[in-house]
Amino acid sequence: MYNVISGAIEIRMYPKTKRRMFKRLKMKAEEHKAGTISLDSYNQTIQSYKGFLKHANAYAISSKLKNLLFSDLPTRSWKPEDG
């Protein structure tokens, strides 16, 4: 869809795509908790969806994703950089 006022192209997200995205993220989180996939693989999936949402007109969905991720973060041992 082309926005006449700003001259920008808006990419809208279909409801089915949104449902599929959250379903897959939930599935990946469960796989990570079970130990079937690594944290890097889980993080790669999240980064991929965040990149997609950047190009879509999806601020509300992006905010919902951030809230979901911060409420149920997988544990990761954090080690500060030496130096």
Give a structural overview:
The protein is elongated and about 40 Å long. The chain has 83 residues and is mostly helical. It has three helices and no strands.
Query: How many helices in DSSP terms?
Result: 3
The fraction of residues assigned to DSSP E strands is under 5%
Content-based structural category: mainly alpha
C-alpha end-to-end distance:
50 Å
Features:
single chain; about 80 residues; mainly alpha; 3 helices
Short structural description:
The chain has 83 residues and is an all-alpha fold. It has helices spanning 15-34, 39-55, 59-71.
SSE topology:
Elements: H1 15-34, H2 39-55, H3 59-71
